[in-house]
Design a protein that fits this description.
This protein is of the alpha+beta class and about 260 residues long. The chain contains 6 helices and 9 strands, in the order E-H-E-E-H-E-H-E-H-H-E-H-E-E-E. Strands 1, 2, 3, 4, 5, 6, 7, 8 and 9 form a 9-stranded mixed beta sheet that branches. Strand 8 and strand 9 form a beta hairpin. Helix 1 crosses helix 2. It is globular and about 50 Å long. The mean pLDDT is about 95.
């Protein structure tokens, strides 16, 4: 693979095409209202914190629309201020909260002191080649180049969906007997890169919707009250069929990286 990784600030023509990658995100994940409102803003307001990996040439096409080189991965992060009187601790509301903090800080002119990972996504055809670890390393290096000494990440453990009933508080700190590294593959990548698992964010992302919406997103009936296991969900979705709605509250795991 002829891999080239650049920031979106360096190659703004990749802003549109990078969203067209085929990925494995479950459909319901696209309907977290905090993410829906803010992830797109990262591209326009924090382009120097967006990394795009292409396989092939690095020059834009002559029509200035389609870039040369296939986009195989993207990594989004945001700067925010953690050392504020009402913060200091990594939030229990993880991914959602750090996005809100980042754009609040930008609006109010607060000087950021920390970078948070938001997303590392690899194109389906490029999976299994270690690109997620490469993008994490580049995210750390990019933060250091921009003058930061710390990157935090509300990590979505990528094998937790296989054990939706397992406690995240146990799962996050589960290790392998063979080497003492995390049981979860994505947490393992972070620890191998020098990260430290710090705490659980029990309510990192919240997706609510009507039972009709959940049926559309998951092809599940959502016709009885109680927990519903959904493909790709880290924990069961709580369904109130008799009241017409269901809510998914996703736990993540905070990992801290010194850079």
């Amino acid at each position: 693979m002829d891999l080239h990784i650049t920031t979106l600030a360096e190659r703004p023509e990749l802003a549109g095409p990078m969203w067209q990658m085929k990925d494995l995100w479950p459909e319901f994940m696209m309907y977290d209202p905090v993410g829906w409102a803010n992830v797109g803003r990262i591209v326009s307001e924090f382009p120097e914190f967006v990394l795009v990996a292409t396989d092939g040439p690095t020059e834009p096409a002559t029509d200035d629309v389609n870039p040369t080189g296939k986009i195989v991965a993207r990594a989004l992060s945001v700067p925010f201020r953690l050392q504020e009187a009402d913060r200091r601790e990594l939030p229990d509301t993880g991914w959602d909260q750090v996005l809100l903090w980042a754009f609040s800080d930008l609006r109010h002119g607060r000087t950021p002191d920390t970078v948070s990972a938001i997303e590392v996504t690899v194109e389906k055809s490029a999976l299994g080649q270690g690109l997620s670890g490469t993008m994490l390393a580049e995210m750390r290096a990019n933060a250091a180049r921009l003058g930061f000494s710390e990157v935090v990440a509300p990590v979505r453990p990528n094998a937790k969906h296989l054990e939706p009933e397992a406690s995240i508080h146990e799962y996050a700190f589960r290790t392998r007997e063979s080497d003492g590294l995390p049981h979860d593959p994505w947490l393992r990548v972070h620890v191998r890169a020098g990260g430290t698992i710090e705490k659980v964010a029990p309510a990192s992302m919240t997706v609510g919707g009507s039972v009709e919406q959940w049926r559309k997103w998951t092809r599940k009936p959502f016709d009885t009250d109680g927990p519903v296991e959904v493909d790709g969900a880290l924990v069961p979705v709580h369904c109130e069929a008799s009241r017409g709605y269901a809510v998914y509250v996703e736990p993540n795991v905070w990992v801290r990286h010194r850079v």
